[in-house]
Specification:
about 725 residues, alpha/beta, D-amino Acid Aminotransferase, Chain A, domain 1, Dna Ligase, domain 1, 7-stranded mixed beta sheet, 6-stranded antiparallel beta sheet, 29 strands
Length: about 725
């Protein structure tokens, strides 16, 4: 009987679960190695089956309602003869009661290593496969990894490698290494089952034993039937060109403009004007009083010119009433700042739904509501409620928390990180994260995509969009609501429950999304990805002004999966010509307190061109102005007559040396295609993470601590490895 017939029969009988035997039959069809067993229906048949199977055996009660046999005492292990089988079978009759339909006879399978594999259906992403440590420690240790179906053999192999207890898959206490191909086949088989059998909602294989010879065997299994969680209501995608037009308006109307300090209708206007916006600005307020020396129109209809974008700050109850006015005026795009919609609960969701329906019918696209605003520095278009004006750059930033987003913009402005565009996406009534991804994919000015996400509306569409974009440019994501408490906060803040973080992270790993753990990571990673070439491997060379920093950085590299190779004789010989004879002759290269600004440049070039190095981290080569300034203060205080001109030469020399270092770094990155990033010795008021280099596609990047530099580089290495796997996958398909 094929799987379709087994499921059809069970559903016809009104069952929501298959028996263990039926479950294994289906799993076997999908390539899962299951234990050989016999199904019998009487005590004597059980004894005869045990003789055929060969002692010792396992006897289990069988029945469509016996999903927890162990708890009911219906599993007996290591039965040695006919007598023990008969006694166990007879004892099952009262224990199983009317639920007992027969017996399952299996050979006794031995193995010290137990794992668990399974399938379940996530409400956002659909079928998800799990693999983890099994046995009595399954729930206690929680050592499990996940992937969203469909899963390739490569992804299945990565799941095995991500397990914390992966050493158990190797040779273990006299037992052979687990047969990796069987584990991969189990995972990919579950993936296919999840994609093909829509009636199956859950699969549990526990334990999945590793025998002493390394072979894999599923000795117990359960398949649950039912209806899969309904996906969210299908949302029509927003066209990329519509999103682009919102960010490139030639004329803007503020509906609800205000002259009162602190009001949204005033904040947005003043920030826009201060940013240097060069398009037409129209102010609308029913009172009709001039604001900031500008004419105010009492209604939308009174605006004399064409309006590309309407910025609305009216109370939520008044927004529906302006939809026909937008339509009559020909305004197709609305930036809806106002709150009071789905983030307020069920009643707000209904109001928001009605608004979206009316806007769609009128041909109007809404960004928001409940948003902090948007910016496009390339058009001097700064329309947020926070006075911040980051420079134009290549980073596309979307944040579901407007406050966090504008805080990141302020950090970006301070750190010299350029922004392509920013959106505080708000409730995403019409334009969702997935729409932004597709828009950034086709935008040539966007080189790196950065997202702060609390919830997603369409898991499958996000999965597809993220993978498409990540193949062309890095996508960096910080997920809010990673804990149970965080989930509650996200739900109340955005009006939608956040997805389980393990499933979300699994989807990100599959699609090449770079996961940030903290808000500051978003800026660090965006600085590195947007300013440096990707490393081709994970070998790191380092130069440092101090041995301790080198030791710390080396530990961080190794802990992050990077390699710090030993210097080869040819590299040592070259550096011998530059540094004193007492230098360490090891990687990291300690400059042994040499402050000649030419030395780091010479050592840097030697390391970058080294064929066993994929990236270089420098520690303390830049950021010495703090010490020079303090030295000048100290000398001036102790010796007021010391020539000030001579002291100032030290500052000038330091600034010139730092500029030369970044320029040389950019030249080397262009020539060798290897990232060079650093750690600042000490920050001062002029310190920035990113330093522009005129005429170069690359920039100087330096962080305040070694851990930030190493983390950024490690994430770049992981992303490059994902890209390589994706490219190899494409080549395999083509061949």
């Amino acid at each position: 009987m094929k799987s379709y017939d087994v499921i059809k029969k069970a559903k016809a009988a009104g069952r929501n679960a298959l028996t263990e035997a039926e479950s294994k039959q289906i799993l076997k069809e999908y390539g899962v190695p299951v234990v050989e067993e016999e199904v019998v229906f009487s005590v004597e048949e059980a004894v005869a089956a045990a003789e055929r199977v060969g002692y010792p055996v396992v006897l289990k009660g069988l029945g469509s309602r016996l999903t927890h046999k162990t708890e009911r005492g219906l599993v007996c292990l290591n039965l040695q003869d006919n007598k023990q089988v008969r006694e166990a079978a007879l004892a099952y009759c009262p224990a199983g009661g009317q639920d007992l339909e027969g017996y399952l006879v299996q050979p006794m399978v031995y193995g010290k290593r137990e794992f668990v594999a399974g399938l379940f259906c996530d409400h956002l992403f659909g079928p998800v496969v799990m693999f983890g440590l099994g046995g009595i420690f399954t729930e206690a240790l929680g050592d499990a990894v996940f992937r969203v179906a469909p899963i390739s053999e490569v992804q299945a192999g990565m799941m095995l490698d991500e397990l914390r207890a992966r050493s158990l898959l190797g040779p273990f206490r006299g037992e052979e290494q687990a047969r990796r191909e069987q584990l991969v086949e189990t995972i990919t088989g579950l993936s296919r089952l999840g994609m093909e059998q829509n009636e199956i909602t859950e699969v549990d294989i526990n334990p999945l034993l590793i025998r002493p010879d390394g072979s894999v065997c599923a000795v117990d299994a359960l398949i649950v039937l039912g209806e899969r969680p309904a996906a969210g209501a299908e949302r029509p995608p927003v066209k990329t060109e519509d999103i682009a037009r919102i960010f490139h308006p030639h004329s803007i109307a503020f509906i609800g403009a205000s002259g009162q300090l602190g009001k949204w209708g005033h904040l947005l206007l003043t920030d826009l004007v201060t940013g240097g916006y060069e398009g037409e600005i129209y102010l609308v307020n029913a009172k009709g009083q001039d604001i900031a020396g500008r004419k105010v129109y009492p209604s939308i209809a009174d605006i004399p010119g064409k309006v590309d974008l309407g910025v609305v700050t009216l109370p939520a109850a008044q927004v529906m009433g302006i939809i026909p006015k937008f339509k009559a005026k020909g305004i197709k795009y609305m930036l809806l700042i106002s709150s009071g919609f789905s983030e307020m609960g069920e009643e707000g969701r209904e109001v928001e739904g009605d608004l979206v329906k009316a806007a769609a019918e009128a041909g109007i696209v809404i960004l928001g509501p409940n948003t902090m605003g948007i910016i496009n520095p390339h058009r001097k278009f700064y329309c947020t409620g926070t006075p911040v004006w980051p420079k134009a750059g290549s980073i596309g930033l979307v944040a579901q928390s407007g406050n966090l987003g504008t805080q990141l913009l302020a950090f970006a402005e301070r750190e010299g990180i350029g922004i392509r565009a920013f959106s505080g996406s708000g409730n995403e009534a019409m334009i969702a994260i997935e729409d932004y991804l597709y828009a950034f994919e086709s935008d040539d000015l966007t080189k790196t995509v950065v997202l702060y996400i609390e919830s997603i509306k369409d898991g499958r569409r996000f999965f597809t969009a993220a993978r498409r974009v990540a193949r062309k440019k890095p996508v960096i994501v910080l997920k809010g609501g990673r804990t149970e408490a965080g989930n509650r906060a996200a739900a109340s803040h955005t009006g939608a429950m956040a997805s389980n973080i393990k499933i979300f992270n699994a989807a990100c790993r599959q699609t090449g999304v770079v996961i940030a753990e903290h808000p500051m990571d978003l800026l660090d990673l965006s600085a590195a990805f947007s300013s440096l070439p990707l490393p081709k491997g994970k070998r790191v060379a380092m130069l440092t002004l101090g041995g301790g920093w080198g030791v710390v950085a080396t530990d961080l590299c190794v802990e992050s999966g990077l390699e710090v190779p030993h210097l080869t004789d040819d590299v040592i010989a070259e550096i011998d010509k530059i540094l004193p004879p007492y230098w360490s002759r090891s990687n990291p290269v300690d400059l042994v307190g040499q402050f000649d600004p030419a030395l780091p440049l010479k050592v840097l070039e030697i390391l970058v061109k080294w064929d066993q190095c994929d990236a270089v981290i420098h520690l303390g080569a830049v950021g010495r102005a703090y010490f020079v300034n303090n030295m000048i203060k100290s000398v001036s205080s102790a010796d007021p007559n010391y020539p000030r001109e001579f002291l100032n030469m030290g500052l000038e020399r330091e600034a010139t040396g730092e500029k030369a270092f970044y320029e040389k770094s950019a030249q080397l990155m262009e020539k060798y295609g290897k990232p060079i990033l650093g750690v600042i010795l000490l920050e001062d008021e002029n310190t920035k993470a990113v330093t522009d280099v005129a005429g170069s596609p690359y920039k100087g990047v330096a962080f305040l601590t070694p851990e930030r530099a190493v983390k950024a580089l490690a994430k770049m290495v992981d992303y490059q490895a994902w890209l390589t796997r994706e490219n190899n996958r494409d080549e395999g398909r083509a061949s």
